[in-house]
Design brief:
Blueprint: H1 2-14, H2 17-52, E1 63-69, E2 93-99, H3 105-119, E3 128-134, H4 142-145, E4 152-155, H5 158-162, E5 173-176, E6 181-186, H6 192-205
Parallel strand pairs: 2-3, 3-4
Antiparallel strand pairs: 1-6, 2-5, 5-6
Helix pairs in contact: 2-6, 3-6
Length: 212
């Protein structure tokens, strides 16, 4: 009988542990959700301000495409560069071009567009990155890279090209958001001044990558 009383008291003393454990789990889940919201909110806010809450008469130049998540697989680096990993998109807006290693006229125009659009952002240009995805895996011509400091170059994977509408044409520049989503495509022979304005608006409404 004495043993039964002790066992009963022992079981009663353990009961409060379960509610406490559940409370800690709920707190941990709320913390994770809050962190996720804090990370995603700046991008969502920039989308809303840029695409939804626009003053009358203001139209974006680039063609909006359904946001599509780029694959997680890394791309083999070219021209002696390290492999390109998807996490490099984090915190920056990235201009992406997909084209052959021979870099014909359309490629030259695209690389020039990406470089000038980034430089035109002035103090904000470090929030813009550039990536050339070489569709045939060949070595890019050195003369094309002479004025392209900071350009990331990697060999294409079919999974990447499949999610970029019209990438096979080798004439478009795409914009990828800081979460790794392709969201915009610029036209062939795009006007650099208009691309610059699109980037300026996005950088204005997004705090990601901004120096404190």
């Amino acid at each position: 009988m004495f043993g039964a009383i002790l066992a009963d008291r022992h079981s009663q003393s353990r009961k409060p542990e379960q509610p406490a454990l559940n409370a800690r789990q709920r707190t941990a889940r709320r913390t994770l959700v809050l962190l996720a919201v804090v990370c995603i909110l700046p991008v969502l806010a920039s989308y809303f301000a840029y695409y939804v809450w626009q003053p009358r008469g203001r139209v974006n130049y680039g063609e909006l495409i359904a946001p599509v998540q780029l694959p997680t697989a890394s791309l083999a680096g070219l021209d002696g560069q390290a492999d390109f990993v998807r996490s490099e998109f984090t915190g920056r807006w990235t201009l992406v071009y997909a084209g052959p290693s021979g870099c014909p006229a359309g490629c030259v125009d695209a690389l020039y567009l990406m470089r000038q659009s980034r430089l035109a952002q002035g103090q904000e240009m470090n929030r813009v990155a550039r990536l050339w995805i070489v569709t045939d895996g060949g070595p890019p011509p050195r003369e094309r890279l002479a004025a392209q400091e900071g350009l990331r170059i990697a060999a294409a994977e079919s999974a990447w090209l499949d999610v970029l509408p019209g990438a096979a044409s080798g004439v478009h520049v795409y914009l990828v958001d800081p979460l790794g989503n392709a969201i915009m495509r610029f036209p062939e022979k795009a006007d650099p001044r208009k691309v610059v304005k699109d980037l300026q608006r996005l950088l204005k409404y997004s705090s990601l990558g901004r120096r404190r």
